[in-house]
């Protein structure tokens, strides 16, 4: 059966593009589905949940698109400065970061800002939510890596990393995370919160994506995409993806292979078929589309992502070991119920069981 999915890309030209992909042929085709020109400056970030697509811009707004009703759904106005990063947690919450140093948690039910955290002294450059939904990582221009307890919206701990990192990502299993500064990827272990390995890319890194728990796809300021085995800390494959530099990479899984999606300054979005096995072979091109725009960011929209269920929230953890223990208890938890995250910190209340 053909999968239903769309490629969503943002551009310098202020436009967000949506392309419906037909996956039932040998060569995949991407047909123009929509263009949204809701922003008044270039688009800097894009994210997709099963219902919504969101774009962030230098115009300081986050624009919402309802993919079910196929209509624009309004704008979120809270940040003062460029929106630098957007990430959904399941279908219930969106996290946003900006040049104002704020990290905001939004409920997707009523699109309220549940929590606005002054996360960094400079800009928030990147954020990543743990697969459990209990904590998030952020990096900023204050040379820190910060861990946030999303159950209570407070800082769990701060690590000085001596340089301004611009990307942070959890591995899909949540046991490790990577921090990117310029051309270097530092691999961290969750339990020790210390660097277990380092990989250096030939060029400054623009985008990364975990294809599974060990293989990381890395795009930099050139036309090549490189795949790295994080466990072995070695390059396992590289291929020329575009004519000019690759700006963004994303991926999704089909039944027995992985699809890597790349977007470039040359205007093309390309889909690559990759078999994730012991000996990685360069991927084959499944299909491509020319947007004729200068692309800046990329997301894949699939309507049938797995729904995550709410369980009892975590106790407050203050060290990396405690967080690791807390996370090992349950793998799938919603970020937090609105009542918990909205609690007035000056008046401690008793939490009801299950955070309800």
Automatic annotation (TrEMBL):
WD repeats lie at residues 36-68, 76-116, 117-158. SMART domains: WD40. It is found in: Nucleus, Nucleolus. Residues 309-329 are annotated as: Disordered. Its main location: nucleus. Coiled coil: none annotated. One of its GO terms (cellular component) is nucleolus. SUPFAM superfamilies: WD40 repeat-like. Keywords: Nucleus, Repeat, Ribosome biogenesis, Signal transduction inhibitor, WD repeat. InterPro entries: PAK1-Kinase_Regulator (IPR051959), WD40/YVTN_repeat-like_dom_sf (IPR015943), WD40_repeat_CS (IPR019775), WD40_repeat_dom_sf (IPR036322), WD40_rpt (IPR001680). PROSITE patterns: WD_REPEATS_1, WD_REPEATS_2, WD_REPEATS_REGION. CDD domains: WD40. Residues 309-326 have a biased composition (Low complexity). One of its GO terms (biological process) is negative regulation of signal transduction. Pfam families: WD40. Negatively regulates the PAK1 kinase. PAK1 is a member of the PAK kinase family, which has been shown to play a positive role in the regulation of signaling pathways involving MAPK8 and RELA. PAK1 exists as an inactive homodimer, which is activated by binding of small GTPases such as CDC42 to an N-terminal regulatory domain. PAK1IP1 also binds to the N-terminus of PAK1, and inhibits the specific activation of PAK1 by CDC42. May be involved in ribosomal large subunit assembly. This is PAK1 interacting protein 1. The lineage of its organism: Eukaryota, Metazoa, Chordata, Craniata, Vertebrata.
